[in-house]
Design goal:
4 helices, single chain, globular, Dinitrogenase iron-molybdenum cofactor, alpha/beta
């Protein structure tokens, strides 16, 4: 499965989602480990104010669809972006560690535990 996270050039988590200059798409295997990692210079920081909020969200939606993203990991996303992700059935998982790769693996592991606990109850 493909998971997107905003990243900085040093590999840390970028705190801005919709205004991230760069994002990574991690291909996560069935064991929750990263099998592939690609970074993309999206320039959402620069493009954010070019046009309407809706057109900016559409830009992000296109990226998510083009890369078959099934979950996002971030420290923050605005309410409008949260609604957009919810409408796409793409969960927004919390980035809790400073390094992006480790944060993706931690978020996936936490989501798996939460899903398992829900199934068991």
């Amino acid at each position: 499965m493909n998971v997107m996270i905003p990243v900085r050039p040093d590999g840390s988590v970028e705190p801005r989602f919709g205004k991230a200059p760069m994002v990574a798409v991690a291909q996560v295997d069935d064991n929750g480990h990263i099998a592939d990692w690609q970074t993309f210079k999206v320039e959402w920081d620069r493009l954010h104010d070019e046009g309407t909020e809706g057109s900016h969200h559409a830009r992000i939606v296109r990226f998510l669809r083009e890369h078959d993203v099934v979950a996002c990991v971030a420290t923050h996303a605005g309410i409008g972006m949260q609604r957009t992700l919810a409408a796409m059935n793409i969960p927004l998982l919390s980035a809790t560690l400073p390094q992006a790769r480790q944060s993706v693996e931690q978020a996936i592991a936490s989501a798996y535990v939460a899903a398992r606990d829900t199934e068991e109850s």
